[in-house]
Specification:
five-stranded parallel sheet
Length: 310
């Protein structure tokens, strides 16, 4: 298969790099600044699973269309989705599979509107990684995992073909026959983590030590109730592990949304917290704590927008 990876940051760079390392035909669609850095020093991965320095094939954004790719891996942030759609559109064929790894669920509607239901798979990734000061990808201690499948459920030839390409890479890849369940569970966890750490402006351990474990559990109850009302109630094992993760007094985990707030950048607040509140409202499920967190981030975004216009 010919793969197009939209983005070469901590997520796209890691999964795309490991795929290239395993022998797949991979091309990265990247902005000019990132492209220049990758030409100069290569795609660098630092990881407990082994370091790598690769010379990636690069396709600059805005480049003329050539032969369509077989699969596109979308790894952008939600607030960059419109630009990502425009960037990948010239490189798609009628049979190209689009595998998005964005957080939440709202992006599925936008991708379907742009490209049609049949082209868009469901997917989630689990990885703890960041970009270092020299642009290197630093994979931390969480084992990387990528789950994907047909949104209508069941298997398909293209899912099996993708699974065969991903299997040799240095991450766990899991074809799922119920990918929406996987996506809802991650959405539940992420909305709770983002709501908790952004509202309290601290990491999980700091909040737990300050007496906030009950708030964490109450937020998880809210998001889980929304998922259940939508027909994708989290499984018991997932809920138990998530509750433990969100109330661990020794944990230093915080949502990337909090890091975005602290650096003064754009956030996925509307895409994650706002969408969870909206879905709860549509399903008559009250979410007062998540609503408070969504309002908190929305006020930040409004102030940020006002500063940019000033």
């Amino acid at each position: 298969m010919r793969w197009l990876i939209l983005g070469a940051g901590s997520v796209g760079g890691y999964f795309g790099g490991r795929l290239q390392e395993a022998g797949a035909d991979v091309t990265f669609l990247v902005r000019p600044g990132r492209a220049q850095l990758l030409r100069e020093q290569g795609l660098v991965i630092e990881s407990p699973d082994g370091a790598a320095r690769l010379q990636p094939k690069l396709l600059p954004t805005g480049a003329a269309a050539g032969q369509p790719f077989d699969a596109v891996l979308l790894t952008c942030k939600a607030y960059d989705l419109d630009a990502a759609i425009a960037a990948v559109a010239p490189h798609l064929g009628s049979a190209t599979a689009i595998l998005p790894l964005l957080n939440g669920l709202l992006h599925l509607d936008r991708l379907e509107a742009a490209f049609g239901f049949e082209r868009v798979l469901g997917g989630v990734c689990h990885i703890s990684a960041t970009l270092g000061p020299a642009g290197e990808i630093r994979h931390l201690d969480l084992p990387p995992r990528l789950v994907f499948g047909e949104r209508a459920g069941g298997g398909s030839d293209r899912v099996r073909a993708i699974a065969a390409d991903l299997a040799p890479a240095k991450f766990k890849s899991v074809p799922s026959e119920d990918i929406l369940q996987e996506m809802w569970e991650k959405f539940t966890m992420l909305a709770t983590l983002a709501g908790l750490t952004c509202l309290m402006r601290g990491n999980v351990g700091e909040i737990a030590r300050a007496g906030g474990a009950g708030i964490a559990r109450a937020m998880l109850n809210e998001t889980s109730a929304v998922a259940a009302a939508a027909g994708h109630g989290p499984r018991d094992k997932f809920l138990e592990a998530t509750a433990q993760r969100l109330t661990d007094p020794a944990s230093t985990v915080q949502a990337s949304m909090l890091r975005d707030l602290e650096r003064g950048g754009p956030t996925e607040g509307a895409h994650i917290l706002g969408d969870m509140v909206a879905r709860g409202g549509n399903l008559s499920v009250p979410t007062p704590l998540i609503e408070a967190a969504a309002c908190h981030v929305a006020v930040y975004e409004a102030r940020r927008g006002a500063r940019k216009e000033a």
